[in-house]
Specification:
The chain is an all-alpha fold and 122 residues long. It is built from four helices and no strands.
Amino acid sequence: MEEDEYVETSCWWKKEITKEVVTATATATATTAAQVACSVRASYAHLALDRIFSAALAPAPAPVPAPAPALAATPVPVPAEVAATTAAAAAATAAAATRCERHHGHHPFQGIKVSWRVRAFC
């Protein structure tokens, strides 16, 4: 019988210890959560104040000067050889496109894939 009483007593102590541990853990968790929340709020407040003071103390940006009206109105001359080369390149591109269109029955820039061997003939 003593053994049974001992077992009951032992179980009773285990239950009490478990209750105390659970209570202490819950209290510690709640305290930690409150501390974290307070810390986060303090961090955001610090960041907000930092931004406010940084904006207030920052120097004003320098105004961007407008282009001089004389320079903006002056046309830039294009050398004759550049204009001629550009016109010749445009004409050669148009001629190649027309030649390819006649040969294949479609314009080469319509997204239709042609094999590289056929393109070589164009």
